[in-house]
Amino acid sequence: MTLHEFKSLDFNDQAAAIWSNGVLLEHKDEGQTRFILYSIDDFFAEIHYNQERNEITCINSLESDEELQPYLDKINLVELLNKSI
Fold it and tell me: Which residues pair with 47 in a beta bridge?
């Protein structure tokens, strides 16, 4: 799946694509929101999950290195490479 294909999907189909094609990389918590980073083929997607309401509130596709910055110190690149082989 390409980034363009992903972005053309509606919210529910984006979530389904993440569940079926995504590799969980990391998460971070800020208040009641858990931000969960996934790798999908050649791009990254981030789910915003409200833990109090038990619902996904947003799905973002990350298009720049700057958007990945909050996760970089937590991602194990060796583990990621092993999953993609």
Answer: 36, 59
Q: Which pLDDT score, from 0 to 100, does residue 43 have?
A: 92
* Ramachandran bin of 48, using left for φ above 0, alpha for ψ from -120 to 50, beta for the remaining angles: beta
Q: Could you tell me the strand order of the sheet in which 23-30 lies? A: 23-30, 33-40, 43-50, 55-62
Cβ atoms of residues 45 and 14 within 8 Å: yes
Mean pLDDT by 10 residues, the chain (85 residues): 95 97 92 95 94 97 84 69 57
Rounded CA separation 73/9 (Å):
30
**What is the DSSP code (8-state) at residue 59?**
E
**Which domains are seen in the chain, by residue range?**
3-84 (3.30.67)
Cα-based distances in Å from 20 to 25, 52, 65: 14, 25, 24
